[in-house]
Amino acid sequence: MASLDANIFLRDDQNVTALRNSCTLQTCPLSLSYWAYLPSLAANALFLALFGLSLALYLLEGILSRRFLGFTIAMLCGCTLEVLGYVGRLLSRHNPFDQAAYLLQIVTLTIAPAFMAAAIYLTLARIVITFGPANSRLPPLWYPRIFIPCDVISLLLQAGGGGAASVASHQDGNIGPGDNVMVAGLAFQVFTLAVFIALSVDFGLRTWSRMRVMGEDALDPAHAKLRQSRKFKGFLVALAFATLCIFTRCVYRVAELSEGWTGHLIETQKYFIGLEGAIVGAAVLALNAFHPGLCFSEGYDERAGWGFGKRMEKANGSVEKVNASSLHGSEGETAAKPVLETVGEI
């Protein structure tokens, strides 16, 4: 069977699918499989272990900090999908003719960073409050209200396109429309990330400019201790690094899937290892090392219970209820409430 010409079977999709179902690496050439290469055992096992470790760390950090639960949940979802994706790739190494394993990895690894982007979006409002809302063009709560819906749209397009392509593949149909929807979702994610980066840079430049004129008066004095902490400064570096990693990966994925599922990029393993696995892995580990729930500690009271910013325990043991609507007041009112936990928690 290994000596048969694959082109004979490529003339009829149903013949190819029927043949693949009975193929093994010992009986059929790799060219008849869903892969142009045999997935690397070392690389994919490493990424599986990395994202599995990261998943466990995010869960532990969320339990220990009881802060930034929205961030933690989004990262847990993203890492879970990454783990499933690399399981699919390892299964494909064992049997590259397995359609289910191939579709599992391409869909889960495509949509996973959308959850990581959502986690990143949730942090900007808290950063703005820490430095002072007066330095921002937008009120703090506008950032999640703008970017989270955009991320949901991107996720729905990617998931919907992946699902449509998967169904078409199972039915030996045309995967082109589904692939196009996936690319549209990825392109929208790239656009959203670009806008987010632009607004983040703008906020940084406006803060720096106001500090040159006003000095420390340009910053919210309630969070001076937090701004001076090494953990918070490390978080800012880690967040910027992770954002650029996810952005670079999304640009790569747009280029890759724009060529279809048989293009040069998707059929070259070294690009995937470097621009997908390694770069996303670096992003999640950076945010593991500087989880915002552990870095936003100085100057903040401890949380009471497991609420999403609804209850706060003060130093004297009393509990204060906090309403999200309180963040809609004036700048002075916002600065006067340094212990609010609502922003970035939903």
Structure description:
The protein contains twelve helices and two strands; from the N terminus they run αααααααααααββα. The protein is elongated. α3 (41-65) runs parallel beside α10, α4 (69-94) packs antiparallel against α5 and α6 (142-170) runs antiparallel to α7 (176-214). 66% of the residues lie in helices and 2% in strands. The termini are far apart. It is an all-alpha fold. A hairpin with a 5-residue loop joins β1 (311-313) and β2 (319-321). Mean pLDDT is 83; it is low at 1-12 and 301-346. Strands 1-2 form a two-stranded antiparallel ribbon.
What topology emerges from the helices and strands here?
Layout (H helix, E strand, L loop, with lengths): L5 H5 L2 H9 L19 H25 L3 H26 L4 H33 L10 H29 L5 H39 L9 H5 L1 H29 L10 H21 L2 H4 L15 E3 L5 E3 L9 H5 L11
Antiparallel strand pairs: 1-2
Helix pairs in contact: 3-4, 3-10, 4-5, 5-6, 5-7, 5-9, 6-7, 7-9, 9-10
